[in-house]
Amino acid sequence: MASHIVGYPRMGPKRELKFALESFWDGKSSAEDLEKVATDLRSSIWKQMSEAGIKYIPSNTFSYYDQVLDTTAMLGAVPERYSWTGGEIGLSTYFSMARGNASVPAMEMTKWFDTNYHFIVPELGPSTKFTYASHKAVSEYKEAKALGIDTVPVLVGPVSYLLLSKPAKGVEKSFSLLSLLGSILPIYKEVVSELKAAGASWIQFDEPTLVKDLDAHELAAFSSAYAELESAFSGLNVLIETYFADIPAESYKTLTSLSGVTAYGFDLIRGAKTLDLIRSSFPSGKYLFAGVVDGRNIWADDLAASLNTLQSLEAVAGKDKLVVSTSCSLMHTAVDLVNETKLDDEIKSWLAFAAQKVVEVNALAKALAGQKDQAYFAANAAAQASRRSSPRVTNEEVQKAAAALKGSDHRRATTVSTRLDAQQKKLNLPVLPTTTIGSFPQTVELRRVRREYKAKKISEEEYISAIKEEISKVVKIQEELDIDVLVHGEPERNDMVEYFGEQLCGFAFTANGWVQSYGSRCVKPPIIYGDVSRPNPMTVFWSKTAQSMTARPMKGMLTGPVTILNWSFVRNDQPRFETCYQIALAIKKEVEDLEAAGIQVIQIDEAALREGLPLRKSEHAFYLDWAVHSFRITNCGVQDTTQIHTHMCYSNFNDIIHSIIDMDADVITIENSRSDEKLLSVFREGVKYGAGIGPGVYDIHSPRIPSTEEIADRVNKMLAVLDTNILWVNPDCGLKTRKYTEVKPALTNMVSATKLIRTQLASAK
Length: 765
Fold this sequence. Notes:
Layout: E1 2-4, H1 16-25, H2 31-51, E2 57-59, H3 67-74, H4 91-99, E3 109-111, E4 118-120, E5 123-124, H5 136-146, E6 151-156, H6 158-163, E7 166-167, H7 181-198, E8 202-206, H8 216-229, E9 237-241, H9 249-255, E10 263-267, H10 274-281, E11 287-293, H11 303-317, E12 322-326, H12 345-349, H13 354-368, H14 374-389, H15 396-403, H16 416-427, H17 444-454, H18 460-481, H19 496-501, E13 505-508, E14 515-518, E15 521-523, E16 527-533, H20 540-547, E17 555-559, H21 561-566, E18 569-570, H22 576-596, E19 601-605, H23 620-635, E20 643-648, H24 657-662, E21 667-670, H25 680-684, E22 692-695, H26 708-719, H27 740-764
Parallel strand pairs: 1-12, 2-6, 5-7, 6-8, 8-9, 9-10, 10-11, 11-12, 16-18, 17-19, 19-20, 20-21, 21-22
Antiparallel strand pairs: 3-4, 13-16, 14-15
Helix pairs in contact: 1-2, 5-7, 7-8, 8-9, 11-13, 15-22, 17-18, 22-23, 26-27
């Protein structure tokens, strides 16, 4: 019985690639140094899977930024502004597309389906010239082969690539991206031909858009694309991999009818209903890659249950055609549980990171082949039983409080317009108030202080003194820049979710459980293993300290319940909404304590609310109902004069704008500039928004510094569709990933642009 891994984490067990990338970007190391780190990591990953007994090992899943950008490079689809002149795409052009440079902005970045991973959105149009410009897939296959390891090269499928793209600037929004299929398929044929010549016997095409709601025209594109590629597939086994949700019946029918395709991969964790389709109509003679081991969470697989599922599928696909697989790439989970020396033994026994999931996949394959490791399965069963019965998982008081939420929609007592009037009387803000999103640059010195405090190398008094000094510096900078509503910069926080989780009951934390979010950015999601409660105030001390340093309004900074949920590894033994309501009640207590401490503006970030939206439209309403309700729970009890902000970033928000309005926040700041001001189109189309709103005026994920004129132009575009009295001016997102040498001039230009427009508005009266 064979085993397969869809993909594997790239950053390395100690984030080796992250540090190598940042060193290269800072000019401290060469391209050769970067490639040496990447080569060592790839070699280690392939050898690990080979030694674990995995038969179908993926290659070309390693990336310096993301796999969609790699595909853009492969196709030579470089936007003109990057002045690429042809040939093999180098790192300079590649990273300019991802991060921008001094003269041109980066391409848009958005969420990869409903995960916290991001990808760079291709910009295409009728004039886009495609050419085979990156041979990465072939070179990595050859690299593995030189190590004696035959891999399965992985390509983003041609149809999903186009469906994930957007019309380039200046191209009609109605332009059919699928009309470019005939232009990119010749390049895919070249890649397939080179892989075949290099010795590849299998190729994996990732076509995850098949799990979405596709129309007949989009489904037809899959049929025509693979019919065109069929001749190139001669002599090859071709796997089409899908993941993240159930595949709709029509898409399943299209997929299993594709020309030249040997095998189909399905996510049987988030796509459990797909099992019914497989059992009723799986094509004879084809391989079934059964994704029974969860690639998106860190819980140990219930091996007995998975084995039962696999045994039932043997009768459908045949013993020699069933392959045990992960539900999706393991890049969405942490790397190796071996690196966790501080987790207590009980919780650790419940977990499996990427390295352990590789072992689980192979153990299941061997069990199916009659070589069951009885001791391994017995230990797994004991861990499953321990988790089900552990008293640390359940808190009756929390469960009762969450159950009592039913029957109320938890709205504030007055309308947003009434509240905004009351708040303005108290805050006395100018027209077009300026603010930032929360964090300020996380300097090397600041990270050192937090690290030494955690390691008990400095005292609590020394730590508090250092953080106060940093807050004072951030406050002074904002006052000198003349920003209207200030933030304390979050110097006490390494990560916005981890910080809160560390202070809530029901959470566990890893030392090295890093997961890639985008580029070199890694996050360390907390693990929600039990019922959630807040034993003590979490942010009140720092917010009061910061407010005491200025006469200007200082925002209290919180992470919202939906974002904490979506950016954590969540318990899988109860519905997600129940856990979210528990977190909402904990945040509600914090909001009320901040208000009692005199904090007049409280921001409750829901950066990940859109991210959790199910991929199928039929499931949207239920999710949005409990997600929006959770946010309202957090602030339903505050006074009219307390201004509640929220923040969202790097997703497409236009399709959920009415749910955003239903959140009933007083002010929302929202990413806008990197996505070419796509958000503004919803207001041009007539949606009325009565609360305060701050569409971002510049992209903080790029080192590029926007000019005063550029920002003023953006603000004027906003004023064309939004009322002056509700518009705020702010960056797209928090500033923690930037340097002060970038932040200060960018914010200076932002404030200058705002003052320029205020003057223009005043003179026009």
